[in-house]
Amino acid sequence: MLLLDRDGAATDRWTRSEGAAIDNLSRALVGFDALPDALAQITPDQQIGVVISNALAVSELEPFLPRLSLIAIGFPAFADGRGFSQAKAIRRAGFTGVLRASGPLIPDQFDYALACGFDEIELPDISAGRQTVQQWQQARGRLSQTYQRGYRRDGNILDRRRLARNPSGSAAP
User: Fold this and answer.
1) Percent of the chain beyond pLDDT 90?
2) Looking at the structure, do residues 93 and 156 belong to the same domain, yes or no?
3) Which of 48, 108, 138, 143 is the most buried (most CB within 10 A)?
4) Number of domains comprising the chain
5) Residues 6 or more apart from 70 whose CB is under 8 A from it?
6) Predicted confidence (pLDDT) per residue in 58-78, tens digit
7) Residues in contact with 45: Cβ distance below 8 Å, sequence separation at least 6, in sequence order
8) Is 35's pLDDT higher than 90?
9) pTM to 2 decimals?
10) Using only C-alpha atoms, what is the Rg of the chain?
């Protein structure tokens, strides 16, 4: 497993827990099904994170957001982009902790993942063996403009075009 953040390789300080057994773990990462039990037993000095499927409705996760420090969204394949939409929805719901994309993503998706609100990418060994940290770092910053709104960017292509046509900022037809 390789963990990346915007600065390169990172150290994973979280311990995955089977079920809800989180005794003596300062940072425990549990599955969604075990989350209620894990939250019931954490102490004030423990942090809890959750691993979720990219098919989980954000509304199911929302009641837990204030108590979570990390959310890891599973990507079953690099071509399955539901996790990107999920990340945006989780950030819109007010989550300020660490958001991790976990799965076989590719460097071309790095900038987009960061723009959607992810802080980290967790690659399985097979993906990490094919894609160096340097490739991931080179991919960061390639996405300079987007058509979509809300990707942690200053405006988007369409908004910039409208502003160029109408610099006063009043509503354009």
Assistant:
1) 51
2) no
3) 48
4) 2
5) 14, 27, 29, 47, 49, 50, 97, 98, 99, 100
6) 999 999 999 999 999 999 998
7) 26
8) yes
9) 0.81
10) 18
